[in-house]
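Project standup — Tuesday

K.O.: blocked on the structure for the chain from last sprint. Re-posting the sequence here as requested.
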Amino acid sequence: MGIGLVGVGMVADAHARAIRDLEGTIDLRGVFSRRPEPRTAFAQKHGVPAVESLEALIADPALDALIVVTPPNARQEIVEAAARSGKHLLLEKPIERDSAAAEAIVETCEAAGITLGIVLQHRMRETSLKLKALIEDGSLGTLDSVQVSVPWWRPQAYYDEPGRGSYARDGGGVLISQAIHTLDLMLWLTGPVESVQAIAGTTAHRMEAEDFVAGGLRFGNGALGSVLATTAAYPGGAESITLNFSACSARLEGGVLDLYHRNGETERFGENSGTGGGADPMAFPHDWHRAIIADFAEAIRTGRPPAIPGRDALAVHRLIDAIVRSSREGVAISPAP
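H.V.: unblocked you, prediction finished:
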């Protein structure tokens, strides 16, 4: 399967390494970025062709799909070009800067009949899949409460890059750029949030958007929860989700799942791995990206939906919009259906 890469930012390296692992089933046909020097340097580093325009990349008759890792404000034009040419799309999170713009992209792809997958790779961790299966078989009981913590750290130099942490380029701060992974995983495990009341602001950084958010959640099944997310918690730590069920409490932290059964038994699955929660945003393995890309390619081959379809990923965008709106208005907000 022929894949093209659009964008050469930090996460592009993880995608290139993942595709290299899949050599024999996926052919990286070329890389395009509007910035010539980074594009050439990336192409030389990974041994792939540097393509001078998006149109030239899409015109490749052996190209089946694009992986897009640009900032979210650069997505619409790329999506429309791919849709016109019938090329499938795998987009890095977030889809766009807010849920309305994200839904427009999803609708563009649906109208064109192309597959749209979203890179929310925390769902592909072995322990995430293990916990999902336990929840679905009912062995943990009913969900009573939830605690989510994203205690990350970013130095000021991270936000000194033009546009980073701005609404115009990124759509916000810690919520849409970092905590989106953990919030998406939470929703995948718990089901929808009915309402949220939150506070958000900027604490330790010079940036336009928020670097701290805390809030209370009420879930559709009646469970209550809390969320705290920040990039101002030096030196940074692993994100965690704790789900308290009637028969067992489950805690996901990094790549480890701990189960605390009400009968006194405990179980542990997985092993610690980097999460990118500290000063190095890329301090995590590329295995989960590899799993996302392999699944996406198989979805195209077989005609089934990918692991994380575009429409499925809209839920976390709507939750983030609700958290931001709640913090601004000082009232409880229900995410859009």
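K.O.: great, moving the ticket to review. The first helix runs from residue 12 to 21. The chain has two domains: 2-120+290-308, 123-278+314-329.
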